[in-house]
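LOG
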Amino acid sequence: MNPTPLLTLLGLTTLLPCVPALTCQSRTTQTMKTVSELPFKWTAGRRRCQAGEGCQDTLMLIANGPQVNVLVVKDCTTAEDQEALVTQHRAGPGLSVVSYTHVCRNKDFCNSMQSTEVLGTLPTPAVPGPVRCPLCLSSSLCDNAPEQACPEGHTHCYSGTLRLRSEEVISNLRVRGCLPEPGCNLLNGTQRIGPIDVSEDCRSALGPQILDCYSGTIETIIKVSDLHLGWTMHWQTCAADEGCFENVMLIDNGQQVNLLVNKGCTVAENQNPEVTRHLEGPGIAITSYAQVCRQKDFCNDYSTTNALWTPPPAPGPGTLHCPFCIAKFGCENAKQRVCPAGLTHCYQGVFKFRGGNIATNLRVQGCVRQPGCNLINGPVKLGPIDLSEDCTYLAVKILRCQKGTLETIMNVTDLPFQWKAGRTKCKVGEGCQDTLMMIQNGHQVSLVLTKGCTTTSDHEVSITKHRTSPGFSFISYTHVCSRKNYCNELSTTAPLWVPPPVAVPGTLHCPLCLSTSGCENVPKQVCPAGNTHCYNGVLRLRGGNIATRLNVWGCMPQPGCDLLNGTQEIGPVHVSEDCNPQSDTLTCHKGVLVKFGRDLSKNPVEWTASEEQICVAGELCQETLLLIDVGHHSLLLGSKGCTEAGTQDITGVTHNSLPPGMVVASYFRFCSDSDLCNSARLSSELLDTFPQSAGPAPGHLQCPACVQFSGSCNNSELVACAQGTSHCYSGNIELTGGGLSGTVSIQGCMASSSKLLLSKNKTIGIFSVNEELARDTSASSPVSPNGVAPGCHGQRCVLKRWDIATTLEMKEPGGREPSSLSVSIAA
């Protein structure tokens, strides 16, 4: 039987069973040395491991002539014990790669390696041969590496990048040097050294060196008291002419802070790191950071708010009262607060962020020194993001607009055509839009209509003739307005449609088709005079709740795949053309969702994906949503994309746990009936399936409650459980698939007599899951109502620790979870 798990109320620290655990040396170091500086020695810190973990030592040494790269990783590990092993991945002279690995559990600090001496000596210098090659070993670029004579027997010049990846290491090592054979095989097939994944890329030998950059976007609103923050991000490989960019902006109204972080690749010119204080506090303060760099991989490595935010001076309270708010929605009922002394005006406005996959309207209310709408002194450019300020939004009433979509194909003789739309209430600051497209091919015409709310600026009615060839025409109508309710009042094709003149027949015969299903076995028809080529392509229309794949066969006056004359956007609809379509492939929404918050089991949130993915033949579209709500905190994990062939069309909902305990439930859909069929827009697809019932009364049981994705549940908050709960739960769900990978750590109140939340299920939609208890919950000791927790009875207790490792995360000092975090990633 496992020992009873214990809790201490002094720091709300979660404890593992009272079993021995190792303490290991801990250090990660990567440094460049010369051969004359070897052996290299170091000291290390210490880390208390989880029960069952061992200690590991990894040393990797890459030598290239007089240069040596030394990488040391020492830490706790779950890997099996391994005797000390020295491996010569490539022997010199010239380039050489050698490593040392060791995993042990026999005693504390058994990973005691502290010098490169364990690897022995490097090969002695060789007799120079006739071949000369550039020589470089660097984390920066090697464009101007000097040439040196290669050792005798070395006949080829090597140019490549070694990528080293682990939880502790994200590093690229540029290598140029001499090898005795051609090819991209410096590592002789090695793919992993200790905890480090190693890979090789020799594309730089064919042209300019290609950078890797940190990449991702964070938008979140937090309390001022929660600063300072740090973050980590995924990485991407750039195009040949691109550099790395990063932009960070803080908007602070004295109570809350909006944090925007955006990183990635860019063609923009280099820009030295620059901090701009657009507006000083107290009151509303706005600060930004920007950099564009190319000097090395991952040069956009700014990862904390420390340089941007310092607590402003705290003047005494003044006499002015203003509403305080920073939110994407819902500042109408903001609370009034006392402004600091010296601030004389209330500000309310909207900051519009556009570009770089961001389209946000941020409502800001607070105290300022002067009147007006000029907090940022005109539009601001943050890398790919345009920031503008508008103080008219909050004064404008919320509009109501006509709403609806129409996708149909009819005969030309049925025109003009009329319709009646529905109605909707927009968000603050939104206008109404009308978009109509008419694609005519011979006697057929396709109508595509979308009406609704939009954040786009007003523009008058615009009718555009994208193509008007004989026998074929493509015309669009767009309009955005905010002058009155239901101003997007287009209800007929009459403004666009004028019957074309009767065309004189020519001599060319082409198949004629306009269809959303297919054009097989269509008869040939005589083309109008002036048409000299047959067209065969697919038009894809995406956006504004439109997802159409239109097959077009017909007559054109010139060859090529340019039916659209370069048109890419019509209102909210993106249009594209493909003249080599694969009829058996789907296009699916693609993206992942990671959202922390409160009451996510009650209040639906938006669940959309900004990207699309063309699947492999036979694949289906999928969307999967997993909700975990422990009471005061909730986590939503979502995924949209393609999934492997063989899956059947199916939609399902699973309720693994419902009140009075924790909520653990999931929604999934696999579909192939149409492009972009994985189109659920809100988490209400899951929430609407929950039974309606009054909240249970509080009981006497108290448990720590926490949910974290790729984070720890240290210092969990103690909560009162509802009546009907029987014990405390503490466990972890390993989750992979659909673009997400990590550990979900969970603590909370359990109503079921079962130990497991997922009842041994191994799949949730696209996710593969494996649940493990962090301790024996059948023996868990709930905290007594008088607040006294059981003690350790003299045995040594081991603090629970979970290593944080995720592609995109937010961290606060002390490991606390952010009060609110919403992250969107293009897998």
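LOG (cont.) second protein
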Amino acid sequence: MIIVPSMAVATPKLTIITVFLIIFFTNPFVCFCRCPLQESEALLSLNFTSIPTYLGTKWTNETDCCEWGGITCDQNKSHVEGISVHDSGIDTSDSGVILDSLCKLPFLTDIDLQEISTSLTAISIPSCVGDLHYLQYLMIRDSGLSGVIPLSICMLINLTYLNLGENQLSGSLPFCLNNLSSLSLLSLSNNRLSGQIPFTWGNLPLLELLDVSFNQLSGTLPLSFSGLSSLTILYAHGNKFNESSPSWALPSSIGSLSLSLNQEITISETFFHNLSNLQEFFLFNCTLNISTSWIPNFQLSELQLVSCQMGGQIPPWISTQFSLESLTLANNGLAGEIPAWLWAMTSLYNLNLSRNHLQGPLFPNGQISIMSILDVSSNALCGHLPSVWPKSRWPPSPSDDPVIWGNPLILMLNDNLFTGNIPPGLCNASVGVKLSLENNKLDGMIPWCLIDEGSSIQNLNLGGNNLEGRMPHGLIVSSHIMSLVLKNNQLTGAFLPSFTIDIISGRYPALQVLDIGHNKFTGHLPKSIGNISSLRVLVMKDNQFNGNILTEIGELNQLQILDLSSNNLSGSIPHNIVLLRAMAVAREDGYQLQSEQELGVDGYSLVSSLGGLDMTSKGTELYYPYILSTLTGIDLSNNQLNGDVPLDFGKLKGLRFLNLSMNHLSGIIPHSLGDMSQLESLDLSSNHLSGDIPSELQSLSYLAYLNLSKNSLSGNIPQGGQMITFENTSYSGNPNLDGCPLPKNCSWPKFATPPPVSIAEHKDEEESEQIPWYQIGVGWSYGAGFLIVVVVLLSVSERWRKKYFKGVDNTLMFLFPFLHNRRL
């Protein structure tokens, strides 16, 4: 009887517990779910060598893969939905085609992989990628992808974004991409794709951006592109499209179009007939055939026409583009003066008219434009520079009355005919990135406010003028400046600027290039140079500096070019010069030193350059327009240096040019020079060096120039490697030196280059190669005699004549039967 009540009590409790468990386990905020084991193993098999710390948790078996950096899962953590990894690297040594692992993540919607390949092993797109039916976003950029694009990619019907740019993909473009009806962005730029663009691509109704630039595509753009009603951006530059006058029916929706760097493309007015919404147009290396009276039916914000064989004056139709913000007309053969209407365009902030034949003053009628980027370099502009420069606007303002803001970023006036003084007003304009006045006819004093601690200039080039005067004593160079070029002027006095740490910001100087060569500076080398830890190029040649070479130079770990030649320096070469770390690394592939410095300002990106370099290499002064990381050299020639050549000079394994000529150096040539595997030019001439030529020099496979002349060397010249390729001028002036190519005790080894042939021997060879005319004459004589005998026999004997002509007749009938038929 007591059982019934206990059952009655237990039933509500069981009900409550059941309801509680149902609510607990169905609550989305209470879940003990984990990433599936097979999916975590698939991610680990991608073999990323490292995951950047900014991505978060490392990838290990001890943690849930949904918590890993760069991984996103669905709300219940039941499946991996997204992977986003940049700059991590993949170890492909044991994994083969490692991207196959992605196919084991069937619920992926987003794949974002960039710069993930660090191995020479090829990475290809797996054909199983078509099994990822939920995929909407696919980016594998700059990751060393090779092979072809698999056709299975056309099965990703939910894909809206496809970017495989900056890889090594080859083969033709997939014709079936029209299956991806939801695709809005397609980028295959910077690959090795070839063939024509499939006409089926015209059936992508939602496509907004198409980028196939920098491939090997040919033919023309298909006429079906007229059906791409959503297309606003089309980049097809850097290919081999070759229709001379394109009849491409491009959709009117296009706002940005680039056809640069193709073949045999001539653009006329009819090409633009349907492009009423065009805002950005880029055309390089083509022909522009447009009349001066043409008025476009669009309003551009950016126009780039480079190397388009335009000729004549700046086209007047550009004046109708009232919204133009950026205009580039470089290398078009333009002549005449810069029209006044160009400076009156209130929205223009970037103007590039470089490499033309423009003449006259920079600003006609004294009108000064307010621009952030102005490049009129390599023209024939003349006159004085304006004494007053206003501040520029940045970013450009769309209003009629733009707000004056900020500093002009780039001002390129180099390689013209400007005269007079450099106006101090340039200091007030506070150029922020680059000011170049190189190779003009400017004179007078340098406004040193351009580089003092109050300046914001990063790159200043005043070389190749007639500037004179002294540098102010106690001048403190701005910590912002990265490149200072004052070469090829008439500057005098001591060069004693201060390069100190900015006390307020605590920053070291940013200076990377210092070139004051070909001036008249005097005194000792400034010890303050030792404070410039960022210095990469130091050129102080052809001045009147004296004293010793600073030991502080050996502490500049970034230095890759040192040129102190043609001065009056004395003492010995500092032995710590062999500690220059940037010259101790042998680099096969080089990057350009600060050649592209991206400056992001409200979405805009600019490019700045540190300029070129004059350097004596291989016995000739050469101009290097760009400073690469592989360009390394030491030139201490034409001084009064004495002592020995540091015996461990060979530690500088990355050195390419070494010139210690025209000094008073003594001792031996260090055997360690044979360790300089990258050495291309070695000049130790006109010194007092003695001893043998080290046999280790034979191992320098890159050595193209060698000058050991005018020393006191002795012994035999090594006869292996590159040593046998040099002429006797490389060794002359060493009386005790023996062996080829010197005439003394020269015995050319087998396979060696033979000595020059004498004039007499050369003459004999020419005569032996002449046509034997006497033999030809004998042959003709025999032939003529035989013919005469035949003619005599035929004329004397009737029997011979009958046999001869019958034989001729039978031969003709055999060869040409139709003659016999005609006779019948």
